[in-house]
């Protein structure tokens, strides 16, 4: 548990396999091969084929077709048309821009706050109550969180509006305001995920030997110096891994937009499509617009390729940084 | 110095400031839930008169009555409701069915797969494992589009097995859409994370006990059920909690595949309830917050009972 390696498809399993099997006359256990393994793997193989592999192939095929969800049998092949259309689709590029704004605000603030919180906790307390309390927002459903903040941020009866009035500012309808809706949604998810992220960092901090800090304080190093030259370098692998995962998740934001920021068929205060994140746009194409099912599949394919590239890039960076606690 | 394991460096004044920050964060984490509770105990006129009163203005239990029960429509409308309140009981029941089903299936089937990856030797094991893991990068919405078509075209009677599931509430002529099996299916058999998580744990189990069982002639099935599973209870519970919470919170798939009221889960029901409320002149905030708070109760209870395990699970998933 001390090495903070990335959970990449590992080869650590095979190395632990001693050459015992050959000694046994009956040759049990490890030589049964696929005959035994097949039955243990059967359910998950079905799950993988039916719900991951085949849908992936089917989605890519759909992305080259013009399909109506009502009558998928009447699909017609359109070659690369869907992808060509994406290039000149202003709504798509608008949603890309909106999503990027969201991700930068969300991940930027959340990572900094979580890191600060984790360092604070590692210096002060291991209290379970503290850790459980800051984890509470994470355990609540996104939809529920969106609704809680829909009320809290309401410009007439919301508590934030009252605070604004109290300090002499005009209340803002954050979730119905074209400028504020994305920062507001991003901050709602900062609230939801900061404690969770802090716990991941906290776990990483626990693996750093205490004596390093003791040595540092004997040498008269300040808190900031110790953070910079002990904590950061040793935490970097976990930091990078957590950032990959939260970045990927952040690009796929949907629930909170649906609950608090317009969403499908724009309920509460859809500020002129300014909260139309990528997932929302894909959803609308697939299930609300006519004959756009194939187009939605093409959009989803583009998103998947983009996320795969990000993941691979980040994992490469991560591997380069692995030799920290040698 | 202070509590174990923490290196208490820094001045006492600095520590006091740090504690103040930490406590502020804790209050901040709880506040929205508390605020929903406070609002659920207020009237719609009360929250307009005293929007910043931390205690429920015009305290009442009527919101719970109208969300949980079925009082006369005139009284409901007088309280600012639309009369279109959904049955929260049915929604919670549906969520319990779906989340429990997914959790049982996923943990068991993924344990089987993890056993194969951790203990069995077969050709292409690492390759199959890597391919499974690669599914981690597939965004849910990407597979959801074809999965929806697949579920819709799936006949309840699968022909060769004549599996009759028509007794399940909500089943109709649209394949597995609006059925419990349809809501569970995409998560029931495997997720890459679950297999990865359990494989890591199984790899850490000492082989010596198994050696003894092998000498006694125990086959893989017996070793799996009698040794590996009992020794992995903490990991299985941890995974079950994570899976249960994720299933309870899932929105996108049930939003697409389970809109019918008979199978509609809590997250989708809350969303639909919200979508209805702006129809009236003023949003029915107290009704909405009451439904929201009630929907949070099961997950808060689970958290209250299993808090330590949840916290450990998150931290463990961070460093493994």
What's a concise summary of this model?
With 326 residues, chain A is mainly α.
Describe the structure.
The complex is a heterodimer of chains A (326) and B (320). In chain A, 66% of the residues lie in helices and 1% in strands. In chain A, strands 1-2 form a two-stranded antiparallel sheet. Chain A is mostly helical. Chain A has one domain: MetI-like fold. The N terminus of chain A is likely disordered. The N terminus of chain B is likely disordered. Chain B has 15 helices and no strands. The longest helix of chain B is centred in the C-terminal third of the chain and has 35 residues. The two termini of chain B are 29 Å apart. Chain B has 320 residues and is mostly helical. In chain B, helix 1 crosses helix 15. Chain B folds into two domains: 116 residues, no CATH class; 182 residues, MetI-like (MetI-like fold), CATH 1.10.3720. At the A-B interface, helix 1, helix 2, helix 4, helix 5 and helix 6 of A face helix 1, helix 5, helix 6, helix 7 and helix 8 of B.
Indicate the radius of gyration of chain A in whole angstroms.
Answer: 25 Å
Average pLDDT taken over every residue of chain A = 81
Q: Please state the structural category of chain A.
A: mainly alpha
Question: What portion of residues of chain A is helical?
Answer: 55-70%
Total strand segments of chain A: 2
Strand content of chain B: under 5%
Question: How many discrete structural domains of chain A?
Answer: 1
Quaternary state of the chains: heterodimer
Q: What name does CATH use for the topology of chain A?
A: MetI-like fold
**Portion in strands of chain A:** under 5%
Name the average pLDDT of chain B.
81
């Amino acid at each position: 548990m001390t090495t903070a390696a990335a959970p990449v498809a590992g080869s650590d399993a095979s190395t632990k396999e001693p050459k015992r099997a050959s000694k046994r006359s009956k040759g049990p256990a490890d030589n049964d091969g696929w005959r035994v393994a097949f039955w243990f793997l059967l359910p998950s193989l079905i799950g993988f084929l039916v719900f991951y592999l085949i849908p992936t192939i089917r989605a890519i095929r759909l992305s080259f077709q013009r399909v109506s969800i009502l009558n998928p049998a009447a699909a017609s092949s359109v070659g690369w048309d869907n992808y060509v259309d994406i290039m000149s689709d202003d709504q798509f590029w608008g949603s890309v821009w909106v999503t990027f704004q969201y991700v930068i605000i969300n991940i930027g603030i959340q990572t900094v706050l979580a890191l600060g919180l984790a360092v604070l906790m590692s210096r002060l307390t291991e209290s379970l109550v503290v850790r459980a309390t800051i984890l509470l927002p994470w355990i609540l459903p996104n939809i529920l969180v969106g609704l809680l903040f829909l009320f809290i941020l309401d410009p007439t009866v919301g508590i934030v509006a009252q605070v604004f009035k109290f300090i002499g500012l005009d209340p803002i309808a954050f979730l119905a305001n074209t400028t504020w809706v994305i920062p507001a949604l991003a901050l709602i998810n900062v609230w939801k995920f900061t404690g969770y992220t802090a716990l991941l960092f906290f776990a990483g901090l626990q693996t750093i030997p205490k004596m390093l800090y003791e040595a540092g304080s004997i040498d008269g190093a300040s808190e900031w110096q110790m953070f910079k030259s002990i904590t950061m370098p040793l935490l970097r692998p976990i930091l990078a891994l957590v950032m990959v995962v939260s970045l990927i998740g952040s690009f796929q934001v949907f629930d909170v937009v649906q609950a608090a920021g317009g969403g499908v068929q724009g309920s509460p205060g859809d500020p002129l499509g300014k909260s139309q994140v990528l997932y929302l746009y894909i959803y609308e194409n697939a299930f609300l617009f006519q004959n756009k099912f194939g187009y939605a599949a093409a959009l989803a394919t583009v998103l998947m390729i983009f996320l795969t590239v990000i993941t691979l890039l980040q994992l490469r960076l991560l591997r380069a940084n692995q030799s920290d606690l040698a | 110095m202070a509590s174990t394991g923490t290196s208490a460096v820094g001045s006492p004044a600095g520590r006091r400031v740090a504690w103040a920050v930490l406590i502020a964060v804790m209050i901040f984490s709880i506040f929205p839930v508390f605020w929903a509770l406070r609002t659920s105990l207020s009237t719609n006129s009360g929250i307009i008169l005293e929007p910043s009163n931390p205690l429920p203005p015009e305290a009442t239990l009527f919101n719970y009555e109208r969300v949980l029960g079925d009082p006369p429509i005139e009284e409901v409308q007088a309280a600012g409701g639309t009369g279109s309140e959904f049955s929260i009981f049915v929604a919670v029941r549906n969520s319990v069915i779906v989340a429990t089903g997914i959790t049982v299936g996923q943990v068991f089937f993924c344990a089987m797969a993890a056993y194969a990856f951790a203990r069995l030797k077969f050709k292409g094991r690492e390759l199959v494992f890597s391919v499974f893991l690669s599914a981690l990068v597939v965004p849910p919405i990407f597979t959801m589009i074809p999965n929806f078509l697949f579920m819709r075209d799936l006949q309840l009677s699968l022909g060769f097995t004549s599996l009759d599931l028509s007794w399940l509430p909500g089943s109709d002529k649209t394949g597995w859409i609006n059925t419990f099996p349809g809501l569970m299916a995409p998560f029931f058999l495997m997720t890459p994370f679950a297999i990865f998580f359990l494989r890591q744990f199984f790899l850490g189990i000492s082989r010596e006990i198994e050696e003894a069982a092998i000498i006694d002639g125990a086959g893989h099935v017996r070793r799996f059920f009698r040794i590996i599973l009992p020794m992995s209870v903490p990991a299985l519970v941890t995974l079950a909690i994570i899976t249960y919470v994720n299933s309870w919170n899932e929105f996108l798939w049930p939003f697409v595949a389970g809109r019918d009221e008979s199978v509609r889960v809590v997250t989708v029901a809350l969303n639909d309830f919200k979508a209805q409320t702006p129809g009236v002149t003023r949003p029915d905030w107290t009704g909405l917050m009451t439904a929201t708070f009630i929907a949070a109760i099961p997950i808060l209870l689970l958290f209250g009972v299993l808090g330590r395990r949840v916290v450990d699970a998150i931290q463990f998933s961070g460093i493994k």
